[in-house]
Design brief:
Layout (H helix, E strand, L loop, with lengths): L1 E5 L4 E5 L13 H9 L5 E2 L5 E6 L3 E6 L5 H20 L22 H20 L8 H40 L12
Antiparallel strand pairs: 1-2, 1-5, 3-4, 4-5
Helix pairs in contact: 1-2, 2-4, 3-4
Length: 191
């Protein structure tokens, strides 16, 4: 980190190294890095893996990522870009986390319409279970419970994940299109 000004805005050049801790079991390197970087209000610079920062508590200047693998540094770049977008369109509701362990079991689609479609499928399966209870009377309680769970999950996905994110997602995509930049991975239709 190369600080150029202190928190009051006075010139105070200093350099220091910040080692970023990582939970190697559950978090990606990008997620760990953003825990430290996000409060610094990072912005991209014209140099690769170098970011400007303005921390109201510490000061301002620039920082450079060192010792990161290419893929991890690229993910940090994407996450810093998302931070810049959020400063314009507002905070991202219900952000899907980057998990290292179990990522294959967690839906990473940031597109809220995918969550709405999955919710519709679950709702349909729940209704199907309710309709076919009379066909299998000895399984009626099981069908009723499973149907109620599927319908509750569908409603939760629509209300908690899909509906809250739709407006934000469209505003963020519109902002990127208007800026003429490439769409970040977190805002692509399919991720």
């Amino acid at each position: 980190m190369h600080q150029t000004h202190d928190a009051s805005g006075s010139p105070a050049p200093t350099e220091f190294l910040q080692i970023l801790p990582q939970n190697h079991i559950t978090e990606t390197v990008g997620s760990s890095a953003m825990k430290f970087l996000a409060p610094l209000n990072p912005s991209r610079s014209d140099r690769e893996h170098t970011y400007l920062y303005t921390d109201p508590l510490r000061g301002s200047g620039w920082l450079q990522l060192e010792g990161f693998r290419r893929g991890d540094a690229d993910r940090v770049y994407e996450l810093v870009r998302m931070e810049e977008i959020m400063r314009v369109v507002g905070p991202e509701p219900r952000k899907n986390p980057d998990y290292l362990l179990g990522n294959s079991f967690i839906m990473r689609a940031n597109n809220p319409w995918i969550m709405n479609i999955v919710g519709a499928v679950l709702f349909g399966l729940g209704i199907y279970g309710l309709v076919y209870i009379p066909v299998y009377p000895h399984l009626a309680v099981l069908y009723l419970v499973m149907s109620a769970i599927l319908i509750a999950l569908a409603v939760a996905m629509w209300i908690l994940m899909g509906r809250q994110r739709v407006g934000w997602w469209h505003r963020a995509r519109r902002h990127v299109r208007e800026s003429g930049e490439r769409m970040p991975d977190d805002l692509k239709i399919l991720n």
